[in-house]
Amino acid sequence: MMRTFLIYGFSAALFASCLLCGISPLCAASPKVTQQTGGAQRYVTIDFNDVDINIFIKYISELTGKNFVVDREVKGKVTIISPTRISEENAYRVFESVLEVHGFAAVPSGSIIKIVPSVVARSKNIATLHDSDMTLDGDDRVVTQIVSLKHANAEEIKNMLIPLVSKTSVIISHAGSGMLILTDFQSNISRLMEIIRTVDVPADGDEMFIIPLHRTSAESISRAIGQLFTGVQAQKGQRPEAVKIIPFERTNALIVVAPKELMPRIRALVTKLDEDVPRKDGNLHVIYLQHANAEEMVKVLTNLPGEALSGKAAPGGASGGGTVAGGAISAEIKIVADTETNALVITGPREEYEAVENLVKKLDIPRRMVYLEALIMEVKVTKDFAIGVQWADGRGSVVGGFSGRPGSAAYDNLTGMTTDPGRLPAGFTLGVLDKGIRIGDVTFPNLGAVVNAYKSDDDVNVIATPQILTTDNKKATIKVGENVPYITSKNTTSGTQQDYTNYEYKDVATSLTITPQVNQAEIVRLEIGVEVIKLKTDSAVGTPTTFTRTADTTVIIHNEQTVVIGGMIGEDTTQGEYKVPLLGDIPVLGWMFKSKSTSNEKTNLYIFITPRIVENPAELAELFHKKRETMEKVHRVPGDAADQFLRPVATNPAHSVALSDIGFAKMQQKDLLRARQYFNQALKIDPDNAAALVNLATLNEMEGKRDEAASLYRQVLELPPSEGGADNHEAASEDPYKALARAGLNRLQ
Question: What's the mean pLDDT in 487-516?
Fold first, then answer.
């Protein structure tokens, strides 16, 4: 195969002229090159940063006066950092090292030097060294070394050295003459010659092994083992050189020459020494968070004073910003958040770590969820829509109510919205309803019942019924609306030019923002923001007119209570036209056969919000079952199903059975905490659920709660017989749950 070469070789005078004229061949890469002369020996400072290797070869050619023939395969970038001056001779050695690093070699051939890939260099006219030429001062040129072995077997030495050389190197053994032929960079051959001199000794029953190391450096282990065996041999009167250990740093391996009987002991000792160095106790720890966010947790720990955990004075500040807590807890502990695994990486003493770990356990707890159900509706002021808050005494009798209007007195059965607009509350009105929403003389069990009761009422306009599930103390936002075009500019011209109109689109929507915060007493704090934007009905196309009603408030209510916001009055103008067909369209006279009317109508905006705390997955599953059952009723029953929603929804035992089955599956998976939650939720729905009672008793028995388990087993035995079992004593006695309960009591006795 024909190879292509470039020839570099410029006169020094020409190169100096280029430098003086500012047209150096190095200008393309702008390397920083300075030359200084000190007597007969010249010194240079070379500083190349990401320069093409061919430019670097040109520079060395001018510096040393050597002619180079460069193979077309020689490509790459060169970076050399040389803070001190070096001689021209050493500069050429640096040049050979650079070529080796990039996989090339310099091969002398008469008056020129060929720069070729290392793989090609071994077949070129390279220098050949013999035993008399062996030296420890190796450079980075490719040479062939011929080694005559005196004692060792050439093939064995070859097999030993093969793992220690690069893939481009060559090792050939000649068994007849006991010689080795090595082709490699001279610097590596010098290292190999050290090994050959060590192992080429009289055998005396010794064996040679290579032991690779994985964790510890070869130099440190060879020194330790060498000192150990030298001392042992001296005590036993043996010659010290009986065990030879040579570290080979390039592959991090040991070359061991020792009597065969010592090799098992040496291998065992190397295995014990080649282990990970144990870190200082308590130095590095990882905590995987189950519920909290790692970055947020680090921010909390960062803001802690130092003495809060360690009892030491806190340093001046924390290092690392919001992600690393370095010194906020103490000067000796650092915390880093790993967002990929949601974990905390902590370094510090054991006692500091234990304090942080205890705090993290208290903060990394399951966060409760809040299911928010809302209803936004408009009611005409002419609608008899009585709603209010009533106070009841201990016997359940209504004793009074309050409209939420400042200065209003308590009274029975607050009517709120009546046919008389003058009796409307002035401005914003806020009230809280207990479980059950009373409007007029009807009490609705939930917001869904209100929607179904008034969905066909022309005086009531249900704007939105958003429902959303959010985490405690996290904002939930719902926005429903449309994008309406507004005319921003209009150009009307005469002649042949075309008219055009520019539009801008704006949202006309109803948005609800709620941030719930739950305390341990199941009291919910709601930060509520409502904005209702509505188009006026008399708006022209392209020039819509809107009116906006907003409310921002914070309320504190109990779980499953309903907060009512009202008193936001809006006025809508409606224009109508009546005319006799055809006659009403006659100009001027048409007014005798048509009429126009304009009516203004006031509406009151009501906002109902009901929060429900969801403690665990079991309660979430129960909520899902109830909502699904409600949807099935809506789709299954024809016509108006409002009557069904006027009654509280009866508890469905099927929900209890489903939750019990989920709890049993969790118990099989050893997730006892969630299993208990599902069983307790199932028993809230149906206290006589035998499966839930038996499974919960078994769970208590597994956790060592014998008294609680026995009580539940007895409760199962006291359950009435199932349907059809009263007349068949034998069938009743074979109830599997009662049999399991009886067996459980026998175990506990």
Answer: 74
φ/ψ bin of 272: left (φ > 0), alpha (ψ from -120 to 50), beta (otherwise): alpha
* Cα-Cα end-to-end distance for the chain: 95
CA distances for 7 relative to 66, 112, 485, 488, angstroms:
11, 9, 73, 72
HEC string of 84-147? CCEEHHHHHHHHHHHHHHCCEEEEEECCEEEEEEHHHHCCCCCEEECHHHCCCCCCCCEEEEEE
pLDDT at residue 618 in the model = 74
Q: pTM of the entire structure?
A: 0.41
Pairing, β 112-117 against β 523-535: unpaired
Q: pLDDT (tens digit, 9 = 90+) per residue, 156-188?
A: 888 888 888 777 677 878 776 778 877 777 778
In the predicted structure, residue 23 carries a pLDDT above the cut 50: no
User: How does residue 422 score in pLDDT terms, banded at 50, 70 and 90?
Assistant: very low
In this structure, are strands 112-117 and 67-71 parallel, antiparallel, or unpaired?
A: parallel
Indicate whether 297 pLDDT > 80.
Answer: yes
* Nearest to 157, CA basis, from 135, 133, 173, 137: 173
Q: Which amino acid is at 617?
A: P
Query: What pLDDT was estimated at residue 515?
Result: 92
Distance CA 327, CA 744 (A): 55
Rounded Cα distance between 445 and 438, Å, is 9
Q: Which residues pair with 182 in a beta bridge?
A: 145, 171
Residue type, 595: S
Per-residue pLDDT, 388: 41
Q: Which residues pair with 285 in a beta bridge?
A: 346
Give me the pLDDT at residue 594, please. Answer: 67
Average pLDDT, the chain: 71
CA distances 2 to 67, 71, 72, 125, 329, Å, are 21, 11, 11, 17, 71
Where b means 16+ CB within 10 Å and e means fewer, 678-692 reads bbbbbbbbbeebbbb
- Helices (runs of H) and strands (runs of E) counted in the chain: 19, 35
Q: 3-state DSSP call for residue 708?
A: helix
* Sheet containing 244-248: order of strands: 206-212, 253-259, 244-248
Residue 10, both tokens: 């410029």
Q: Which residues pair with 247 in a beta bridge?
A: 254
Dihedral class, residue 522 (left if φ above 0, else alpha if ψ from -120 to 50, else beta)? left
What is the average pLDDT across 290-313?
A: 71
CB 352 within 8 A of CB 359: no
**Mean pLDDT of the region 88-107:** 80
Domains in the chain (CATH in brackets) are: 42-125 (3.30.1370.120), 206-231+241-274 (3.30.1370.120), 284-307+330-365 (3.30.1370.120), 369-389+426-490+501-613 (no CATH), 617-635+651-722+734-748 (1.25.40.10)
Distance CA(325)–CA(461), nearest Å, equals 54
C-alpha distance from residue 229 to each of 36, 265, 269, 273 (Å): 53, 11, 11, 15
Rounded Cα distance between 679 and 664, Å, is 8
Crossing angle of helices 706-717 and 736-748, in 10° steps, is: 150
pLDDT digits (tens, 9 = 90+) for 108-147: 877 888 888 877 766 666 667 766 555 545 566 777 787 8
Q: How far apart are CA 563 and CA 608, in angstroms?
A: 6
Q: With the C-alpha atoms ordered 419, 423, 429, 434, is the resulting torsion angle positive or negative?
A: negative
Residues of the chain with pLDDT > 70, as a percent, come to: 63
SS3 category, 355: helix
pLDDT in tens, 212-242: 888 888 888 888 887 777 655 555 545 445 6
